[in-house]
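User: I'm putting together a teaching handout on how multi-component assemblies are represented. Below are the sequence lines for each component of a complex, exactly as they appear in our records. Could you produce the 3D structure of the whole assembly as structure tokens, so the students can see both representations side by side? Please keep the chain order the same as the input.
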Amino acid sequence: MRTSQSVRQQQPVNMAGVGFLRWAQALPKRKGSGIAGLLSGARAASGPSKDTILGPFPTTPEERAAAAKKYNMKVEDYEPYPDKGEGFGDYPKLPDRSQHERDPWYQWDHPDLRRNWGEPMHWDFDMFIRNRVDTSPTLLSWSSMCKQLFGSLGFILLMFYLGEIFPFYQAVAPKQYPYNNLYLERGGDPEKQPEEVKNYVI
Amino acid sequence: MADYQEAPLASRPKTLDPSEYFNLSAEKRRADEDRAAIRANLKRQYQTQLNDPHRKALVDDPALTRWVYARANPYPFFRPTFKTSLLGAMFGVVPLVVLYYVFKTDRDRKEAMIKAGTLERKFCLSS
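Assistant: Of course. Below is the structure of the complete assembly, with chains in the same order as your input.
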């Protein structure tokens, strides 16, 4: 039986122990305090590469050009969200137009989403799909619609309120019964003569 | 087509936009051509992958990956400013505090009424 020189009988090693030992040895060399100092700052190699993930807000023209190229846009069209610490990074700010407004007759790669493969997606793309928010132009202006809706609702509520203050119904009176207000039925003495009850006025 | 009126609830189609045909400048045409070139390149890439007879897996869209990653990982670029702190307080802290006080006062009042015997317990299905 031929064995090469590198094959030796090796003891099985607990790799978890090895990993923990290496982590413990590297701990004093780390910068960062608290939990940040305990966690590894590196991403797994199985994840997306650096040039496909969100980057920081671009400040120099070279960074802007690189970001535009990353997102498949022209440098002139590329406009990042203003850097207000809201977490957008270098993601492009696209016009707030829903997918309803896109040409229904063009041959999109994904016809239901009206989008081509590789096209930069709006930050709120899931809001602008055709089942949801529609930014198409309306028949009336927003102010006109608001006035009509709240005007009619307000009028209805006002009338309900006035109806509570000034109720209006058919005039009613207590029910009048015959036979001297039902003297016998109400357990009156049949021997005694009941008092005459006149429920009418002529 | 000079008297074209948009259909209600529709935007004007690009092919009927007069600014596409009149007052053109060389820069605008060049910009349109560049955009068309990018779009054509992406289309070519997609169609090549789509019609590849040896492909067994889905066609990955890097724009989709970037979008999903961007939406899920805004944390490295978060900075506590006035606006972000205000939003965080308004949506995270204020509802908790307000609801705590509202429920506490309401229940304390009810408890006091029960102890004093003034609570009217009608048979009513909704509380």
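A couple of points students might notice: Residues 41 and 105 of chain B are 65 Å apart (CA to CA). The mean pLDDT of chain B is 90.
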